[in-house]
Amino acid sequence: MLCLLRRARLLTPSLPSSHHLSSTALTLQRAMPTRPRHPPDCDLEESYLKGSGPGGQKIENKTNSAVQLKHIPTGIVVKSQATRSRAQNRKHARDILAQRLDDLENGPESRAGIVGAVRKKRADSAAKKSRRKYKKLDEEREQQQQQQQRA
Question: Which UniProt keywords apply (predicted)?
């Protein structure tokens, strides 16, 4: 994957002068893969259904705003009723289908796989930082208790 340079602006707070100084730091950032393309219309079977769930009679009995897409070559079926608009549900279903096809085709190298890996890395880093912090606090408490016992 290509690496992009990202500019981060750093402000120096609380300087004695009235002007704030800033500097720019360049950081390397991993480029995200492009969003998956929607499959061609000839590979899709599209149907409109009545929605279910909250929304009352209007959603459940009167309008066919839910969209169900079936990708004929793979047999993947996606249903979307996220909004009350048929057009928005259609776009949402196509986005989900494109993502699932990308996952099926590329596995861990798909966009969703890479995003998940980045999130997991951030969460692990935050957990590690938290463990370090509380370990340090516990060590400081133990030292204080030992000093109090000696005195």
Answer: Hydrolase, Mitochondrion, Transit peptide
Backbone angles phi, psi at 52, to 5 degrees: -140, 170
Domains of the chain are: 36-134 (3.30.160.20)
Which tokens go with 45?
Answer: 């079977």
Q: What is the pLDDT of residues 24-72, one digit of tens each?
A: 666 666 677 788 888 888 999 999 998 887 766 766 677 888 999 999 9
- CA distances for 22 relative to 8, 9, 28, angstroms: 10, 7, 20
What whole-number distance in Å separates Cα of residue 10 and Cα of residue 20?
A: 10
- The full 3-state SS of 108-125, as one line of letters, equals HHCHHHHHHHHHHHHHHH
Q: pTM score > 0.70 for this model?
A: no
| Distance (Å) of CA 51 to CA 55, 58, 91, 123, 129 | 9, 9, 16, 36, 45
* C-beta atoms surrounding 36 within 10 Å: 19
CA atoms within 13 A on the CB side of 94: 16
96's tokens = 């989900």
